[in-house]
Amino acid sequence: MREWRGFLVVALLVTTPLVALAIEGNVQLFAIESEAQKHCPADVVVWVNTPTGIYHYNGMRWYGNTNHGAYVCQQEGNQAGYRPTKNRQ
Question: Exposure string (b/e) for 36-75, b if CB count within 10 Å is 16 or more?
């Protein structure tokens, strides 16, 4: 029965639009920038490289362009321990 449930979860992920990727601690990760902005309209949306925990601002080289990452609200990201890039990329 567990195999069947796993199959259903995979099927739902494939057929359902991916808006929120996950909730990690107190931060919600978004696949779509506009959805992150809706979640925190008064905050800055940043792109976090999830394996490293480093985030990038809009206009920077890696904003939305790392292999693994998500859009997050900057304040939530800071509370989760994410930090801005030091080399401004």
Answer: beebbeeeebbbbbbeeebbbeeebebbeebeebbbbbbe
For the chain, the domain total comes to: 1
44 part of a folded domain: yes
Q: What is the pLDDT of residues 44-78, one digit of tens each?
A: 999 999 999 999 999 999 999 999 999 999 999 99
CB 10 within 8 A of CB 18: no
Structural domain of residue 34, as residue ranges? Answer: 18-84
Among the listed ranges 1-10, 28-37, 47-56, which one has the minimum average pLDDT value? Answer: 1-10
Which H helix or E strand runs over 35?
helix 33-39
